[in-house]
Amino acid sequence: MTNPNVLIVGAGALGVVTGYHLQLAGADVTFLVRENRLAALSLPQTLYCYDDGQLKTFSAYQTTSELGALARTRFDFVLVTLDGASCRSAEGIKLIIGIADLIRDSEAVIIICGIGVRGHYLATTRLPESRILEGTLGSLAYQVDRVTLPLHPPTDPARLGQAAFAYHHFKGAPGFMLAAKPRAAAEAFAALYNKSGVSKATVMKAELYAIVSTAFFPITAICDLAGWPEANGISANNELMRLGSRAMREIIALPEHGWAGQLCAPLLQTPALDWLLKKMYQSSLPLDFHAFNRFHHGGKVRAQDLQVMQHCLASGLAQGRKLPALGELVARYERHCTAN
């Protein structure tokens, strides 16, 4: 694939950081954004990388706020960064239909970053399954002017303050994750992304991708219910930790998660979950994993997280399964979200 064209819908942290790595990989990147974002994107984007403490400049891209302006461009991939709740809104549905119409007569593949919405995209776009792919960042990324995270050495606050976006790869984890359904499209995008030379994409079985992308939400939910205590503070709340770990196991063991779910579910007892949370916190440093989740999952994508758990609960109940912990957690979190 020589100089593939990639359209990125949305220029938040996910879109810009992914676009930066795709540009390094040799892709021609175009952003479709709201009109009020055009001015900010007319300037080169400065990114702070927690991995090496350096600033990166991203300027090799095009921008537009009009789908019609892209009618003559043939894209290879369209990355839609809408979260799961936004893509189900009236505005989101209208946008998704417009994107599908734009690429309908091509072979372009849509990569959806929202969680648990592949069926929604298939029904909305009326595109074949071979052209709808799930994928998202495996690294942490945020817009610097929207949140101030605690500083941990060796973070350079002066450099961080110059950046519009900041990102960090978990130690040993992929920079981008893709579900292997459809496999050909997933492997093609991974091959492109990996040409960046500084970030890696991984393709995983669809069932495992579903586990990775849904099972963590009970944990962010219990942190939110607890008022986002200091890092690792949730470990001291035995009642919420037990509820969260039980809800996680119930999600992971759902039939749609296949044999991988059956193997993994029994392992995530409360002590294992406590260890995992502490391990993730350490692996994210010097970016503060807990504070990032408080900003991201406690606000930005809270509606999506709740919808994912509601969907898992409905799916399990429809299959005759008993999900007492997930049911209790969803009910408590619904009340919490309504009150806050």
Question: Topology of this structure?
Answer:
Blueprint lengths: L4 E5 L3 H12 L3 E5 L5 H4 L3 E5 L4 E5 L2 E4 L12 E4 L9 H14 L5 E4 L5 H8 L6 E6 L2 E4 L13 H6 L2 E4 L7 E4 L3 H12 L6 E4 L1 H9 L2 H9 L12 H15 L5 H7 L5 H15 L4 H12 L1 H17 L5 H16 L1
Parallel strand pairs: 1-2, 1-6, 2-5, 3-10, 6-7, 7-8, 11-12
Antiparallel strand pairs: 3-4, 8-11, 9-10
What does this entry look like structurally?
The protein is α/β, with parallel strands linked by helices. It has 2 domains: 5-204, Rossmann fold, CATH 3.40.50.720; 211-339. 46% of the residues lie in helices and 16% in strands. The protein has 14 helices and 12 strands. It has helices spanning 13-24, 38-41, 90-103, 118-125, 157-162, 183-194, 206-214, 217-225, 238-252, 258-264, 270-284, 289-300, 302-318, 324-339, and strands at 5-9, 28-32, 45-49, 54-58, 61-64, 77-80, 109-112, 132-137, 140-143, 165-168, 176-179, 201-204. It has an 8-stranded mixed beta sheet, with helices on both faces. Strands 4-3-10-9 form a 4-stranded mixed beta sheet, with helices on both faces. α8 (217-225) runs antiparallel to α9 (238-252) and α9 (238-252) crosses α14. It is globular and about 55 Å long. The protein starts with a strand and ends with a helix.
